[in-house]
Amino acid sequence: MDIAHIGSRLFLAFVLGAVLGLERELNEQKTATNNPKYSAVLGIRSFSLVTALGAVAGILSFNFMPFALILSIGFFLMLIVFYYLNARFTNDHGITTGVAVIYSFVIGLILMTDAIPIQLTLVLTIIVIVLLSQKSRIKDVVRDINIRELNAFISFAILAVVILPFLPNASYALVDIPGVKDFLRNLTPMMRSLAQVDMVNPFKLWLVVVLITGIDLVGHILERTIGQKKGWLLASMAGGFVSSTATTQSLAQESRNTTKTNHLLAAAVLANLVSFFQIAFVIIAINSTFFAHLIPILLCMIFASFFILLYFLKIREGHNIEVHENIEQKQSSIIDLKAALKFASLFLVISIFSKIALIIFGQSGFLAATGIGALIGLDAVMINTSQLAGNSINYTFASLAFIIANTVNLGAKSVYCFLTGKKQFAIKFSLSMGIVIISSLLGFLFFT
Description:
By secondary structure, the chain is mainly alpha-helical. It has 2 domains: about 5-145, no CATH class; about 145-445, no CATH class. About 80% of the residues lie in helices and about 0% in strands. The protein is built from 19 helices and no strands. Helix 11 crosses helix 18 (about 395-420), helix 13 crosses helix 19 and helix 17 (about 380-390) packs antiparallel against helix 18. The model is unreliable at about 320-330 (pLDDT under 50).
């Protein structure tokens, strides 16, 4: 290790230690004003020296490991004694500053030994400084978290982090069941084709559950931080790009926990409005000419959805039901796992049914197969339609297929809302989507 390298790392150790010390000194000065016995003894100089000491230990570790160990052990013993005396004198038993001092020593040691990349060291130091400086805000957040919210965080972590990554991301058909393949040899070609249909992908199916519960959790967090209306709108806007069906389902479930549903209806309309832009991006990437034919239809749908969104945002709801709503929210869980599992099961059944229908109808029943496939989403059927438009089918016929698929998809979402949401929410959402469907038909009849 050359002198220039040692000098630059030693200088960086001083700087990082000084920054940590500055934050601690400002914090301890604030503490000293509230505690006459407290004296701000740890600051820029202390932390700079501690970090430099860690750097010296790192230099010694290359050729004089025993001396480096003695130096490190001596430092930690001195820190223990200091913590004991300081806690006894000030009656402050917090260990935040003590941990920060240890981290400062470790910074110097890491910088000299290159144990981890220097970029990671800088990032970790910034994170530590932010955590130290946001002590009061973090305490406020922790104090405001209740048991219901903690359980929701833990539940979602189990669903998304513990279960989802370990599920196989592969599709399974009947022929994948041991012994079934031999049995199918004696069946008709149609039955053999049906047996090869992908029935379930465990990862993607569980991802639906994670999306629904995740939107529930994100919506609640945003509701707590920026307000009920804005929170659900932001969560739904993001969810619409991923899955407008799952987002609508999540909002329908949430409607059962509140007596005011207009903000949830606005969020559901927004999720579907966003999905129209998302499907437009998919179509234009595959067949720009087909997209040009769809522009009048898409614009009619977008304008209709936009005005419905404005209506639900502007309409006022009574304030005399807030007390009842708060009591109802406290009694309900943030994440409705049971409802999410029910929807995932329904989603699986419809998915299998639509795939079987595609095989049975084939190209002769293109519109019927497209409508059935749209029960679970527009992406797959619109990709197929875009590829065929201008080749196997003309653009007018393809536009009609788009309207049928969109009508079936929005109708299916309305049915999902009746099955899992509040009746008031489901009726208003169905009427809203009915207006969007009518607007698409008008766009097709008068502008294409």
